[in-house]
Each structure stands twice: as C-alpha cells, then as structure tokens.
C-alpha cells in the first residue's frame, strides 16, 4: 500500500517534468534526473508502452508467424524456434564470436552503477556492446552520450524489460521503437542490434524485429551475475569459477553481464573482464558477427569496410542474412503454416 502510494507520488512528480507531447504520441514522462532537452515526450519507464500508429502500419502482418503469445515451447515440438524454451537458434541469431575472440556485452543500463564500468573499460582500452533499457535511457541520457563517445556500441534491450514472447505484435514494436527513438535523440543514430530480455524470442519476435530493421544478438556464455543477491549460490567466487571454466574449455564466445547494480559492475571489473582478457582478444558483439562500426547503426550500415577486410571471406554479414531471412524465410514459414 505504502509502496503504491509512493509510486503514484513519483509519477505525479514526473508529470511536472513532462514536456509537451509530440502530435500523435501518447502522453509522455521524463524523470527529473537530467537537464537533457528532449524533443519527444516518452512513455513511463516501467510500463510496456503503446506504439505510434505509423510504426505498426509499416509492418507486413502477412509474414509474421502466428506463434502463441506467452506460451513456452515444449522441447521436440518447437515450430517457432523459442530460444528460451529449447535453445533453438536461427541462422540470423548472433550468439558467438570467431575463434580466439570474445564479445563483451552488458545489459540493463544505464544505471547509477554504470560509470565505474565505463571508467574501467576506458582504462583498459576495451570496447563493449551495451544493450540499453529505454526507460533507463531517458533517465540517464548523459551516460548514453558518454558510452557512445567512448566508442562502445549502443544497442537496444527493450523499453520496460518485458519478455517479448509474452507481448502482442504491437507491444513488441513499441518496446523496440521507443527505445530506438530515445537513443537516437541522444547520439543521432539508430541502433541495429537488439537483445530481448532473458533472450526470450521466437520466430514472431524475430520477424517483427527484422521488419523494423534490427538484428537480434544473444549470447553463449552466461555469468549469472544477474542472480547475485537473489541466489545464494551465485557469488563473485562462483562467477570466477565459471569464467575459469570458459577459459579452459571455450575457444570463443559472447558473454552475458550486467551493469545493473554495484555488485555486477564490481565482479565485471575485478574478475570477469581481467580473466577473459588474459586469454581472448576482446571485442564487441557486432565485431563478432563481422559487422563494422558503421553497421551498428541504421543510418551508416553498409558504409564500412566489411567485405574487403581480413576475415570477410570466412564469415557472413548478419545484415545480409537478416534481409534474406526476413523477406524469404519468413514468407516461406508463413506459407507453410
Ligand atoms: Zn536484461
């Protein structure tokens, strides 16, 4: 009761700071933690938003697989390739790195815990991929600007951190597009990479994501740092053992970490990154998929040197794969069902 009263008070406070909504957009909110001058009024950070009508109208509904909303697949009967249920992957999913390389990624930021991680990565001359929550982006725009200026890849992790297979087509659009728009207001370009919270995706989520011009990137090595504080078995020591196991057994990978709270940032700085760096060539998620720095943003995609550089002959550009998957494979799936 007291909690809900506080929430209402907080939202009322946020309303004071709300700016005039853009025509056609739902009434938006900004939090009073920044002086950034937003052109757009954004949805409430902690709720699944509604989309702008034009975003939904641009979708080709005929190609969207009719996967059931909010129902986990059963192993052995997974026609819609639900990764969280069965580990099913499609060729378009980015999930690992080339031999000897490691893709560094952090989810759930930006938060008040994030800046020491930015400082650390800068001191080590390392670049990472940050999958940002839109609701956090509008609270800490200066951090997004800093990440971009530091040379990190800015990517999308939905607006409210909801599980995408539990949402309608329209809600999936809203979760991705509001986050994209907020990031573009800050850094001037639109991210290409999307990571669904918990990696929760099926062919419906893939199709909608691809139609909106995004590429999905998950991971193949989980630190389980997200369970620090809730699972007594997950500690900095257990995470160290996990990462030492990777070093002994894996030739490459993309790891899941978080800059959500101080504990997850500390374990990244003190344990995970130094250990990984001792064995692998550290890189970004996009680089793992042979995407250039230009390919990471819609406005500059395809303008880099991919295709002429070293290694281009041995790995496929996922942008190309996505175009093929989105237009051909999705249509085939649709016809087959
Ligand atoms: Zn997350």
From TrEMBL:
Keywords assigned by UniProt, alphabetized = Hydrolase, Metal-binding, Signal
* Record domain NodB homology: where: 100-285
Q: Which SUPFAM superfamilies match?
A: Glycoside hydrolase/deacetylase
**InterPro entries xref list:** Glyco_hydro/deAcase_b/a-brl, NODB_dom, Polysacc_deacetylase_ArnD
Pfam family for this entry, one: Polysacc_deac_1
Q: Name one GO cellular component term.
A: membrane
Q: Which Gene3D superfamilies does this UniProt record tie to the protein?
A: Glycoside hydrolase/deacetylase
Q: Where is the signal peptide?
A: 1-18
Keyword Translocase listed: no
Q: Name one GO biological process term.
A: fungal-type cell wall biogenesis
Identify a single GO molecular function assigned to this protein: metal ion binding
Q: Is Membrane among the key words of this record? A: no
Protein name, per record: NodB homology domain-containing protein
| Organism listed in the record | Phascolomyces articulosus
């Amino acid at each position: 009761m007291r909690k809900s009263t506080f929430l209402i008070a907080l939202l009322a406070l946020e309303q004071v700071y709300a700016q005039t909504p853009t025509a056609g957009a739902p009434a938006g909110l900004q939090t009073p933690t920044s002086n950034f001058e937003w052109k757009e009024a954004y949805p409430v950070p902690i709720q699944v938003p509604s989309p702008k009508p034009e975003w939904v109208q641009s979708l080709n509904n005929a190609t969207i697989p009719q996967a059931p909303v909010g129902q986990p697949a059963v192993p052995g009967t997974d026609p819609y390739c639900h990764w969280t249920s069965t580990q099913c992957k499609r060729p378009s999913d980015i999930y690992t790195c080339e031999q000897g390389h490691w893709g560094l990624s952090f989810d759930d930021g930006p938060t008040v815990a994030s800046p020491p991680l930015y400082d650390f990565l800068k001191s080590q001359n390392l670049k990472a991929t940050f999958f940002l929550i839109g609701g956090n982006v509008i609270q800490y725009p200066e951090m997004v600007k800093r990440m971009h200026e530091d040379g990190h890849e800015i990517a999308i992790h939905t607006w409210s951190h909801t599980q995408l297979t539990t949402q309608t087509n329209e809600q999936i659009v809203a979760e991705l597009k509001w986050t994209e728009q907020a990031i573009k207001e800050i850094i001037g370009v639109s991210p290409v990479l999307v990571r669904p919270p918990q990696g929760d995706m099926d062919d419906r989520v893939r199709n909608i994501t691809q139609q909106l011009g995004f590429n999905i990137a998950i991971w193949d090595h989980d630190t389980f740092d997200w369970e620090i504080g809730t699972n007594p078995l997950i500690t900095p020591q257990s995470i160290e053992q996990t990462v030492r196991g990777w070093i002994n057994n894996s030739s490459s990978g993309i790891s899941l970490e978080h800059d959500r709270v101080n504990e997850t940032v500390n374990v990244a700085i003190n344990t995970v990154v130094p250990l990984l760096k001792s064995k692998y060539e550290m890189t970004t998620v996009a680089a793992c998929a042979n995407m250039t720095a230009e390919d990471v943003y819609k406005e500059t995609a395809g303008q880099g040197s991919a295709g002429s550089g070293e290694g281009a002959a041995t790995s496929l550009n996922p942008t190309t794969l996505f175009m093929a998957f989105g237009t051909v494979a999705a249509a085939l799936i649709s016809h087959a069902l």
